[in-house]
Amino acid sequence: MEIIKYLPLVLMQFTLILGSPFLTQKCYLWDARCLTSTAQTLVPSLTAGIPELGVERLDTMYIDSLHVDQEGYKVDWYNIYLQGLRNTVIDNLSIDINSKVMRLLFHTDVSVKAHYVKKGYLLSLPVAGEGEVNMKLKNVHMEFVVPFDIIKDVQGRHIIDLKGYQYWYDVKDGVDVVFGNLYYGNNELSRKFHTLVQQNWKLLTIKYNRFLFDKSNDKIFNAIRNYVHSVPLDSVLLYYYKIPDTEIAVKCALNDSVCLTQQAQNTLQLFVEGIPELGIKKIDKLYIDDVIVQIPKFSYAWVNITIAGMRNAIIDKVSINQDLKYIRVLFHTTMIMEFDYICDGILMSLFYIFGDGKGHVTLKDMQMEILFVYDIIKDHNGKHIMDLKTYYYGFDPVGGVDYYFTNLFNGETERTKLLLDLMNESWRIIVAYFSGYFNKKITDKFFTTLQIYMRSRPLQEYALY
């Protein structure tokens, strides 16, 4: 199981390349929070450069030149000096073990100084000049997606082989830029040009900053690649996820639904509390993504959504169809949703409603059925694992639904009572029309949690297979 064996070390080395060549903290492979924290502490060393490993200094970074020729605008920059990477804030560092892709998000301010020569038209304004440019890009957010593989070096040692990268960027808080000697000293034309740039900074960063970031990010990637190629994987202690003995006290045959159901109930609390080592977050309270809905004549948004109730869930049945390769899970619980909301429009052709405030929805005796489609594959150690491919679900809050929203109609109590009475009396209609928007987000979380868990363990550890 070569890839699984070495992946914890792979990711630790990826954090190391963001800073020091010395490991200061050990993290589990799936523990993105730990990895992110470790990466943050290591930023200064790498940005200073590691010449003995062929890692170029990244702050101050030197770029010899760049050329832009786009839509009638031509500019050349020479002797470019870029600063700011030493102040990088690492927002997230994570890895997808199955796709062998690392994902890095960070942000910082970037300052650039260079010599420029430009001519042509920018935003329909003629421009020309030659001199020094000073630019500050405020709060630059960057995302790197880096596919990798594990190979052997000439000495037969396993190393990380970064295959390439893609990146996305967003300059969030503006740009300050001064072109010296613009229009060769014509101050009035220079003032008009700088004003135009300041008024359209967002558009211009989208159109033209990629030319700069293509150059700087190549240097960042090359620094990463050179570092990891120099360090054998077995030079760092490996760590594994220790499976609690209580989880494997009973192994079930795949056709033994009674046993599978009981073991699912016994394991539920593990997911309720989360498994940080695997990157599995708590499912109670469960945080889900924002719900934003726009339909004819009505729109609403729910944000900061939490779901409680899974710790009290009863697993009614778990069964596995080995011929069609699906797992069927039925459970029930009362779910309590809390969120911030905003709404505006006509509901059910009856009410013009509006408001923003807090929302509280109780789905009583929520019955859920989920079919997980799976395949059984071999991991890199030749052991069988259950790989969940997709899922289908159904739900029914058989005990009814209670809706409550604050500050409807700007706090007007009479109309608020009329609307809430309608929603609570006609909850089946509300559920039929609107619940799919958030129930899909809940079941997405359940699917991802179980998918990660199943992929992390050989089948024979928990089943008679």
Q: Explain this structure to me?
A:
With 465 residues, the chain is α+β, with helices and mostly antiparallel strands. The chain folds into 2 domains: 2-235, TULIP domain (Bactericidal permeability-increasing protein, domain 1); 245-464, Super Roll (Bactericidal permeability-increasing protein, domain 1). The chain is built from 7 helices and 18 strands. The protein has helices spanning 2-16, 32-48, 187-199, 201-230, 257-273, 413-425, 427-455, and strands at 61-70, 73-83, 89-96, 101-122, 125-152, 158-162, 166-171, 175-179, 252-253, 286-288, 291-295, 298-308, 314-321, 326-347, 351-378, 384-397, 401-405, 463-464. The strands form 3 sheets. Strands 1, 2, 3, 4, 5, 6, 7 and 8 form an 8-stranded antiparallel sheet that branches. Strands 10, 11, 12, 13, 14, 15, 16 and 17 form an 8-stranded antiparallel sheet that branches. A two-stranded parallel sheet has the order 9-18. α6 (413-425) packs across α7 (427-455).
List the helices and strands and how they pair.
Elements: H1 2-16, H2 32-48, E1 61-70, E2 73-83, E3 89-96, E4 101-122, E5 125-152, E6 158-162, E7 166-171, E8 175-179, H3 187-199, H4 201-230, E9 252-253, H5 257-273, E10 286-288, E11 291-295, E12 298-308, E13 314-321, E14 326-347, E15 351-378, E16 384-397, E17 401-405, H6 413-425, H7 427-455, E18 463-464
Parallel strand pairs: 9-18
Antiparallel strand pairs: 1-2, 2-4, 3-4, 4-5, 5-6, 5-7, 5-8, 10-12, 11-12, 12-14, 13-14, 14-15, 15-16, 15-17
Short précis:
This protein is α+β, with helices and mostly antiparallel strands.
